[in-house]
User: Fold this.
Amino acid sequence: MVQPVLDESDARIVAAGYKPCIGSIAVGNREERLQKCQSYLAAFVPALAAVQGSGWRWSYHAYTINYTTDVGTEIWYSLRYRQFYSYFASAFPDLNAMPLILTRVAWISAENPATSGWQARGTQADYERWLNWLMGRCSRIRM
Assistant:
């Protein structure tokens, strides 16, 4: 395991009893290869290790593309956190139980940011259907 290191401001946050969420990792793109993604995670491991025992959380932006419910597609978007935990299980098992908060659960399009967002790309029913699907996938995970 990587040796945790807290700087002075982090230590004050812990001493004050706060349990913030760190990371806010943005959704990945299919073009990013798994190995590249893992190298980014490895660089982030010391920060996760430093705060893990303090009850802090880390987060991931769970965006989707076209409200798809295809796991093979969503593994690169809203379900990409599963790749993170698989990597932790093999390379940093001490981090595998660290809780994750999914933030900014929405629809995103890199092609045209001006038209991104759930209202710009579908109906309320589309968004609700996708959210329910995502919640179903998340409830099946044990961490």
